[in-house]
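Example S7 (structure tokens).
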């Protein structure tokens, strides 16, 4: 009787709290690193675009395992280890990058959406706090996490438009759960956070931001501005985007396969390296809004399409058309 009552209560609670998942970034359909290589501009399959990485084999940068997920995520079979090292320069840039981009035809840039992910480090190949890291960012950098910056470089720092709004000590072997609370209608963003299996709580109320995405410019992973080339491992799991109301429980939001539907991929827009926005374009007459237009090692366009101008976002490493 009591058990039944609890079960009913739990079901009610879940049905009240669950949002609609718009894009599922779980790694349940990725049995090995080789599955990421099935994606290409000509064959846009799976849950992720995989092209922002160094010159070596994918297995050097990505590994999936049940050991790499937040154990609280009972519906997920795997998490991912993302590695950056001295070979991780992408597209002639001096910064090092290992990043996955959502592959979806769904508009994940409208209304009030929640971008969920969990991140962890260990003491093996630990991130070096003497270098700036940009983590889980949008191309325009309207919101992101950073590591290795600010008054305490050992903190994970949540930023809005490059300004610190919240931070927490990035301790080893702890899963940090986040959801970016983005209202694209009112151009505001807030932050939900927790650790381990604890439900998310809102830690920063929504504040004004230049919210925008073309639904293919959220970067799951890490960009490092280098001063040395030591390898680093970053772990991620619990990745999905949902419509409100937010799912605060850890592990319940990513249920149900997803991510490997051919119907989704056949309906995908005809994105190519040259027509897609931003840092994806290596060369061209003029860079589009939010695209890179300069920085150490940058070999791509330095002129911006009208009416945008090239802004020093992270000089001398990164300049962007805004
Ligand atoms: C998707 O599923 C197919 C068929 O089961 C499989 O061959 C393929 O590797 C999967 N793709 C990804 C990206 O996991
Ligand atoms: C998002 O912003 C719109 C426009 O200001 C507002 O009507 C809506 O209530 C907001 N959504 C939430 C969940 O706050």
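Recovered sequence:
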């Amino acid at each position: 009787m009591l058990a039944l009552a609890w079960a009913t209560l739990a079901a009610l609670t879940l049905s009240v709290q669950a949002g609609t998942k718009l894009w599922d970034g779980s790694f349940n359909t990725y049995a090995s690193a080789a599955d990421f290589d099935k994606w290409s501009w000509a064959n846009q399959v799976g849950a992720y675009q995989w092209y922002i990485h160094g010159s070596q084999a994918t297995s050097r940068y990505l590994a999936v395992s049940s050991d790499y997920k937040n154990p609280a995520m009972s519906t997920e079979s795997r998490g991912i280890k993302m590695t950056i090292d001295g070979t991780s320069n992408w597209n002639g840039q001096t910064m090092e990058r290992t990043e996955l981009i959502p592959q979806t035809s769904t508009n994940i840039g409208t209304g009030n959406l929640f971008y969920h992910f969990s991140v962890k480090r260990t003491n093996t190949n630990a991130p070096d706090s003497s270098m700036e890291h940009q983590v889980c960012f949008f191309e325009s950098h309207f919101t992101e996490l950073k590591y290795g910056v600010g008054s305490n470089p050992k903190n994970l720092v949540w930023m809005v438009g490059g300004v610190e709004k919240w931070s927490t000590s990035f301790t080893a072997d702890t899963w940090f759960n986040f959801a970016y609370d983005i209202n694209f209608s009112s151009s505001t963003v807030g932050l939900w956070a927790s650790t381990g299996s604890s439900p998310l709580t809102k830690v920063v109320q929504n504040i004004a931001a230049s919210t925008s995405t073309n639904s293919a410019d959220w970067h799951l992973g890490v960009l490092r501005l280098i001063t040395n080339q030591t390898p680093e491992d970053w772990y991620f799991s619990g990745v999905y985007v949902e419509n409100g109301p937010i799912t605060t429980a850890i592990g319940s939001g990513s249920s149900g396969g997803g991510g490997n539907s051919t119907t989704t991929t056949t309906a995908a827009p005809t994105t190519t390296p040259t027509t897609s926005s931003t840092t994806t374009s290596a060369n061209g007459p003029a860079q589009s809004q939010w695209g890179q237009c300069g920085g150490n090692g940058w070999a791509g366009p330095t002129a911006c399409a009208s009416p945008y101008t090239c802004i020093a976002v992270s000089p001398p490493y990164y300049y962007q058309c805004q």
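Notes on this example. Residues 186 and 208 are 8 Å apart (CA to CA).
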